Fold Glutathione peroxidase.
Amino acid sequence: MTIFDVDIDALPGGSADLGQYRGNVVLVVNVASKCGLTPQYAGLEKLYATYRDRGLVVLGVPCNQFGGQEPGGAAEIEEFCQVNYGVTFPLTAKVEVNGPGRHPLYTELVGDGGDLQWNFEKFVVAPDGAVAARFDPGTQPDDERLVSTIETLLPR
């Protein structure tokens, strides 16, 4: 099983159908709109715009587990992301990433790697569904290590 086999809802409702991303590089990021790291949305959107035609998908996963920094409902989150950061990459429904209510997506991503530290932790998933790298929340979307990891996995 990989993330491509996990069921998760899209933010606006219905299935996010992660299987459609099989064969792509997927950057999964747990996001929040009231966090000091929220400005990373702009960098994530820029990264998505730069590489989406080569097969990168940025997948934002709202989570309210860290300081209650994503309290809004689906419509509020979607509007915030579009109005403030012009987000066009897909967003899932709000889920828990740690603890007994951890969503199966994060069970697959984390494996034996322990809990997430905070909002905006990043997982790079290879086209075959294997987790290729994990980056801490402070890693900016334009960080050379993150970009290099993505570029290495993208088709030429």
The beta strands are 25-31, 56-62, 122-125, 131-135.
